[in-house]
Protein: Cysteine hydrolase
Organism: Catellatospora citrea
Amino acid sequence: MPQQALLVMDVQRSIVARYPDPGYLPRLGAAIDAARAAGLPVIYVVVGFRPGQPEISVRNKMFGRLAGVAMPAGDEGTQIHPDVAPAQGDIIVTKRRVSAFAGSDLDMVLRAGGIEHLVLTGIATSGVVLSTLRQAADLDFALTVLADGCLDNDPEVHRVLTEKVFPVQADVTTVADWAAATSAALW
């Protein structure tokens, strides 16, 4: 079986706050616990920029509004939500755009670790999950999406992506089913 890693993407405090779902962080925590119990790497992907945001172009429709905005170092909103905080040994990768691969060293970390299969979770389904899935598929990674480990502000968009779009390039399952299968693989 190819070596897997769980990607926990964009679960920073300010992002989680915009997607109110009281069951989300506990479900995500269950996926993280299952990965750790199985000895799988847990990789957190966060969006971040240098002071002054030199990586941001005003032409970028999504991030351009942040160009030149003063962001205090260590801003609490940019931190990973404490309910799913990294543990010792987990990896944190900083990206500069929507895809987890864009402007980050994620590909290097994965290849150095012999990772061939990515298990995707994160906020938002139509943002980081979609962009990362597409790029990862083009990079020949095997993919699994934990549908209830992803959130989107539009439930219909989430449904269409997880039921119709993602299955073309990935296996789509639930946190509970993936955790059970991951646990069973240990025995």
About this structure: The domain at 4-45+78-186 is CATH 3.40.50.850 (Rossmann fold). Residues 24-37 form the longest helix (14 residues).
